[in-house]
């Protein structure tokens, strides 16, 4: 199996970003959604991004942000990739004029193939757990059997992952990458460096030949 990438989302502190990078994370996620307990200010995000070593992708998570909010954030913070986690249309995602992935909250009956085709400009889709009224970060896993093989976009698997189950998730879904937030925390927004390292080790072990 090809190497599976790992993203540690909901980073709020420089030390947590560096712990993730040192453990081998391919990407870190910064949440620009004020209602989230893991939200960061533009100032926090700038400091975190500036502290990172090279070759760690910085991902900005947005939920139904206005064009003005997006533009102001992107002007202030040098993000590599955008993650749209709300009800954004393909046109709204494309309008940001940046590389992006689109989060899809999975529930029975969803046509994930059609959703991938709708967001044709996305670099990938992030599959997360559907919980009514909550855009993400629930810490709950969904039925991985709902993910069809051969989706036309690279899959980033999220939702309730941790060192205890990520190998099984990778074996079943065969994603391009996995995304974790609550599963590696000491408390909301505060990462546990040992849990981060264990998660990334489990990802690498699962993908090893």
From TrEMBL:
Catalytic activity: N-(5-phospho-beta-D-ribosyl)anthranilate = 1-(2-carboxyphenylamino)-1-deoxy-D-ribulose 5-phosphate
Coiled-coil boundaries: none
Pathway listed: Amino-acid biosynthesis; L-tryptophan biosynthesis; L-tryptophan from chorismate: step 3/5
Keyword terms: Amino-acid biosynthesis, Aromatic amino acid biosynthesis, Isomerase, Tryptophan biosynthesis
CDD domains referenced in this protein's UniProt entry, alphabetically: PRAI
Domain of life: Bacteria
N-(5'phosphoribosyl) anthranilate isomerase (PRAI) domain span: 7-201
Keyword Signal assigned: no
Molecular function (Gene Ontology), one example: phosphoribosylanthranilate isomerase activity
EC assignment: 5.3.1.24
Enzyme class (EC, first level): isomerase
Family, similarity comment: Belongs to the TrpF family.
Name of this chain's protein: N-(5'-phosphoribosyl)anthranilate isomerase
Source species: Pseudomonas typographi
Gene name of the record: trpF
